Fold this protein.
Amino acid sequence: AAEADAIVNFAAESHVDRSTKARAGEFIDTNVYGAYVMLEATRQVNRGARFLQVGTDEVYGDVPFPEFPTERAMLAPSSPYSAAKAGLVGLTKTLAREWGAFRVNVNAVAFGFVETRLTAASDDDGGETFVKNGQEIRLGIPEKMRQLAPTIIPLGRPATAEDAAGPIFFLCSPWSNFVHGQVLTASGGQTTGMTT
């Protein structure tokens, strides 16, 4: 690999609703072990680079509509997904401690709700799909859930791609030279995730 100023690893395996139905190991292998292998390989030729893990802050699972937002709403299980995201936070903090002596800067960004094709409106008869291992997977979330975003995000809206780019740019820039081993939460003030 050639020299690089920054290596940015974006979240990989997602679809929380499938994390306990599919092989749970896929989430750990892809999100944690895959990230470690990539970072270790690039570290050997990129001394002094910045490493940035981009993930999500929402790790507790989905709340079925219309129960949300009562205090008694049950969270849909997403433990493999949650474990993978928590593993990346631990990996970020540990690598920061281990690689700091080599002047390798390691941080992470944890996003809340960001407008992407994974969070676009979807229902049983509409929305974008893709095929993985022969299984068709529907992207997006029900419109009724999307309408709840303003009630759980203090800024009153999901993040845009431009909003998401800011924290990544900051942590890849010289302005963050002394920011190390941190998870920067960019959630519009939503405090229901792992890092808040």
Observations:
- The chain has a mean pLDDT of 76.
